Amino acid sequence: MQLLQKCYNMAERGTPLAIKSAVCLDHLKGFFYVEAFRDSHVMEAVRGLRTIFPSKGARLVPLKERPAAVTVNRAAKAAIERDSWVRVRGGLYKDDLAKVVDVDFAGGR
Questions:
Q1: Whole-prediction pTM value?
Q2: Which of 16, 28, 29, 36 is deepest in the core (most CB within 10 A)?
Q3: How many Cα atoms occupy the beta-carbon half-sphere of 65 within 13 Å?
């Protein structure tokens, strides 16, 4: 959230951050990925964020490991439980975030 707020603030000032995207995955605790053309763009984006320690340096993910780093874990996808968070895949609320209140195992919903 800090990176998103910094992105908004910098764009408002007329000097937008030179990053393309950022993602934090549940199965990779303690890491987040920032997509940019240069590592200096990543370091500029995370400079000043309280929860990031840039002294450890940004490391490029090797090309062979990039798809695996952001792939959805299929086993976790199948394990929908009550009170978990899900993404709606179709209909009026497509792509919205939702909290599971009940699971219908017979209907697969």
A1: 0.52
A2: 36
A3: 6
